[in-house]
Fold:
Amino acid sequence: MKILKFGKLTIGGPRTIVIAEVADSHNGDIKTAKKLVEEAKKAGADVAKFQIHLPEVEMAGPGALVMWDGDLYDILKRNLFTPAMHKEMIKHCAKVGIEYLCTPFCPAAVDILNDLGVKAFKTGSGELANLPHHRKIARISASTGKPVIVSTGMSTWEEIRETVRVYEEENAKENLALMNCTSEYPPNDYSHLNLGVIGKLRDEFGVWVGQSDHAHKNYVALAAAAVTMGAKLIEKHFTLSRQQKGPDHAISLEPGMLKDLVDGVRATELALGVTKMISKEEQVVRDWAFHSVIVDRSVKKGEAVTVKNVRPARPGPSYKNWGGIQAKYLDDLYSHQLLGKTFKKNLPKNHRLRWSDLWS
Structure:
């Protein structure tokens, strides 16, 4: 799989991309949106993600869909961000030093974002099976090389396969990344998260995979677990305050919580090394925690070393730079190199034996 270039970021490298999903948490206010971007940057997020809605196009009309927070058409109209406002947010993200990303919910919104010069596309789980929507994005991606990040919540494996096929047919699959997702707000049953799907998506479709997560609790541990499973992107809803009224605030992370998540992801990345080594800090512990060959009773010069007059005990042979004999020389693998040698001098009980104490 090739590394995907997303502005100054890379998808597929050693660094996991953390996406702060602003969605409509700005409540339609440009000042709030800018504050969200600034707080996301402070928390360490790599991307601030928005949504662009054209209610008259993407909805069947007022009253067609009533959600837990009310009529979705009215919610979208109330929190509406115009193309001009999105253009301003693109500039603000560049000024702050965070990548702008946005989810379009209809083909007309795709055109708006493309005209605004976005560096990548993101689609929500609700659009997973909207193949015409994906084909339009795929064609743009094929001609521009822009990455497309596709969420796969509430979908079947066959539906995911069909969507990926669209990108294959449009020669854009190499620009594709999939997001494992559970579209519950929040998912209270951890068994619904299925983090193991991350690897299955990667292996079957040969694309980079991330985790779009709505978990309300243990979000740091779950994000870290996703990283260990191979997630190259982590997406979490973000708000200035969970106490605000709106469809996403209650399941979003506040600034301090987002920082905790980012710190957890970065710590997990560092912990995933595959080189077995003894660190300088470990060596300090090794020096006292390992075992040496110790004289088990007073011995006389010329006496032979046997299992009856030596034993393994702490501290280790290198404690205080002693240069002692490792306890492994009392095991059958190495004992022929030690047992039978004779002591050069009288030695007291509990003396840490050194090779220089012995004759061959």
Remarks:
- The chain has a mean pLDDT of 92.
- The two ends are 59 Å apart (CA to CA).
- Residues 4-271 form a domain with the TIM Barrel fold (CATH 3.20.20.70).
